[in-house]
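Lab manual, section 2.4: Encoding a predicted structure.

Procedure: take the sequence of the chain (248 residues), apply the prediction step described in section 2.3, and record the output as structure tokens. A sample record is shown.
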Amino acid sequence: MLESPKCFFTRFNLVVVILAICSSCSRLDDAKKFFNAGYGKYNSGDYAGALDDFNKAIEINSNYIKAYNNRGMAKDALNDEVGAIADYTKAIELNPQYQFGYYNRGNAELNLRDYTNAISDYDKAAELNPKDSAVYLNRGNTKYRLNDFAGAITDYDKAIELNPRYDKAYNSRAAAKNHLNDFNGAILDCNKAIEVNPQYAEAYNNRGTAKRGLKDYDGSISDYDKAIEINPNYTKAIKSRAEVQALK
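Recorded output:
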């Protein structure tokens, strides 16, 4: 039986569509391969190599949200916060509900001391995922830099509520309490941070500061000693220890 021209063209068009779909799938597979390679390089500390792979993934798929996000993280690691913000913004444009984009853009803005926009992005990230303890930690760190120590403590409280073994949150809350002269509270938080992470030099330093506030100079020096033992290049602890030694 002879096929009608209409039937022929319909089948021909179907073949073309199938070939186009296959070609598109192949390109998307290539983009994913570059993405995975970049992910591996990023985790191994090869940020320049990761950046190159994420560039290639985006060249193939210009709507690859995760690639923009991860390229932004590679740029952050290479101290290109402005370029990173552009990538996070693109990811958010492609998906306004992309929580990682807001969180990571907030981190880049925090590094650039753009505290107002950082808090705005952390607010949105918390709205999209209220269970992400890291968002509250970094929003607290932003408020800390603005000298809003009470506000910072509220965020650290939330981070610890979500993650009771969050050593960074305990340590940051201790630093904020030191600024509010709540030295006993700071010591308790440092104790918890050290319990979780016995090699946490900054927690020993902050506990040393709290003990200094309580005029426990021997205890303060002991903590500064431990911080310096863990990190021999800890300039802040070295300076603080010398100051306390002069008080004795």
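Check your result against the sample. The chain has a mean pLDDT of 91.
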